């Protein structure tokens, strides 16, 4: 019989013996007066003191204590606990469908066809949806999305991704062998960082990240025990990047670590490439820019770019689909990358299928084209409208200043907090903006993320709020934020 | 504008400046006579010498060089290259659907309904499938499987998992808060190992794994720079576990590391719990056994158990669904675990839905029950038949000895190799069984995994072969293996 994949058929008698030998280690027997039973105690193998110390350093604000409290409050409301509000509004995370955004019909039709190919016989589906499904299924082992794919991802999907990138970047070439399908963008980013990290003390790998940052970076760097090197975006210039600040950060970092990567750059995330709302703004991929800068950059700069199915007009977070493109990567390192991703076998195949549909969406003339474009445009213009609304209303509040939301799905307004509130927060050992957001949650049911979870200039305070709630709900939310901020300011002045 | 999630709207002009400052570093300019162009060279940031050394140590035989070569050969065949065979038969990995196993109709119906809820209006689906889909959708944000779930997994799915475990283990209680949904079993196993690792030198965490092992363990331990502690299963006793060997391994390990976990035990994988074929054999979960051993074990031994949608009668590898149950885990550590899994946001929601269907399959009286049972039984009895067939035919080959395949999907026969072959392999710097399997692939198109990829007693050689190919193809495969082995033995004697 084969044990190589560790099931424990007939493990029973053996386990008894293991239990009574290698694994025992009872450190004491107490007596429980209530139950009149012996209570056995044993030193745990795994405690907060013996566990992996790098894991302890990990923090992830987007799903941190404030969100856990929000979930509790929802339960309390269900149980009928009286609150000054009737529902929790979650504006903490870019989870579009949870906020009522509708999925793209075409994508879901193809996914249903891939899940249950019997439906290919059904007349209710348009031909282009059926063709996409057939093509994906033919590329799957046994024509089933239940089979493992190649670890790098289904080949025809990687080819579609490459064609999509070439077209998006105005013809800059893209090699399907440089495409790795991933479990959302996060998976690709963590994998790239993992490759980079080495050295000890002053030679330890440093990674430069913008502040405010997305907490995945700080979390991954903490877990990898890499050095997080901060550079600050310029809030007064609409969160733009100053090269002088980059150079300051870099030269300081060189004193205590070995800065190797710049995020976004060696890691460039493009998950919001369709979420550009501001007049005169458009998306430029770093890869395209490198090619415009000439061969001394496009042939030499090592760049990894990431995209996913979770944002833009799709908002399909639950499928955990994504891809990564690497250029100018050393072939030996690329072989190591391919080996590394093979350990997790393959990204979820439904997510790979969805990623394929995103890069190979309905074309003019295909039966689903008009409806696809209608849905896509409606979603993006609604987001643009909510981006504008958020900035306008927040800026009417004394003590809140909000930059225009030019892209993505979030506002990151600066809030001025009274000294008294800051003192009280510090007395509680809380970051002042955490104290502020926690109070807002308890009093209004609105769940925001404190700026401290993303990083901010010393002495400044912010919160992050998504623009995703439905317009009517967003208006209520913004009105409540306004009311709360005024009340809070008054209370602590 | 908000940079917190790192898209690079309007990044273009800034990037030019970054490019010309922080990021430049051209180390030389050469001249390409062919193109009459200047070729810029630049020292790579990321090379085999500067990359993460622990990643270099990772090996994963199930998708190693032999499988990569198999993929090449398939391409060559497509391109019309003449070979002594017309197709590659992959018996290297437990990928049931790729080998023609059909998905369970009920599961795929519910997944289609969840993907495209419009189908709930369709009469072609049975009511119980529709009810399962409605229940899952109601538990999703915005009633969409495209929304993120809680990081620990959808609550009602975790409740179903807990009920399933209680029923499977004859009433031993299971708390849904101890259930974590995962991206396949691998994800859960790696996460648990990650929690465990700490210390340096002789205090470095050691993890005891059975040899032969599943290469995920050695790969994960290498990446975590933990110490792999081997204990050998007894091939002569049908790969059973000898406690004396466990104790030998443990006491030796204590000299050079801090052995903390026993796999399977603190990590107990149960992905084959339905794949038990041998007379008088049945599946016993370690948790149930601990309870039978009494409170001094069931209240103290820290145990993590894993299951997935990939094996058993489902074979749905591509969905990457799974769960982990932890018992007796220190509450502080559990909080750290919950925090850690929140960084990857959530497991793929379609995989969570599928896991729910596995633990909450059709009940007697429900419309889909009979067909579900028919499909389930057919798949499992076919596997049992192929397990028997594999053992019987392999044992007719002089120089091959194969234990009964009592469970799972694999045989791990011992092969005797001629001295001359062993010498030639070593001259090529190859493991002798790698040399053997590579030759078999080139000559027969059969893709097996060398025993050295799983570990084996010094001086013994094996290969791992799945029992998954369709019966007719399996017979051809076994005949070819027989023929090859005889030819190989002759050639090198």
TrEMBL record, chains A, B:
Cofactor: pyridoxal 5'-phosphate
Enzyme class: transferase
GO MF terms, alphabetically ordered: L-alanine:2-oxoglutarate aminotransferase activity; pyridoxal phosphate binding
Pathway: Amino-acid degradation; L-alanine degradation via transaminase pathway; pyruvate from L-alanine: step 1/1
Record domain Aminotransferase class I/classII large: where: 125-479
Family: Belongs to the class-I pyridoxal-phosphate-dependent aminotransferase family. Alanine aminotransferase subfamily.
Entry keywords, A to Z: Acetylation, Aminotransferase, Cytoplasm, Phosphoprotein, Pyridoxal phosphate, Transferase
Signal peptide (from-to): none
Protein name: Alanine aminotransferase 1
The protein's Enzyme Commission number: 2.6.1.2
Subunit (UniProt): Homodimer.
Localization (cell): Cytoplasm
Pfam families: Aminotran_1_2
Function: Catalyzes the reversible transamination between alanine and 2-oxoglutarate to form pyruvate and glutamate. Participates in cellular nitrogen metabolism and also in liver gluconeogenesis starting with precursors transported from skeletal muscles.
GO biological process assignments: L-alanine catabolic process
GO cellular component, one term: cytoplasm
UniProt key word Ribonucleoprotein: no
Reactions catalysed according to its record: L-alanine + 2-oxoglutarate = pyruvate + L-glutamate
UniProt keyword Transmembrane helix, yes or no: no
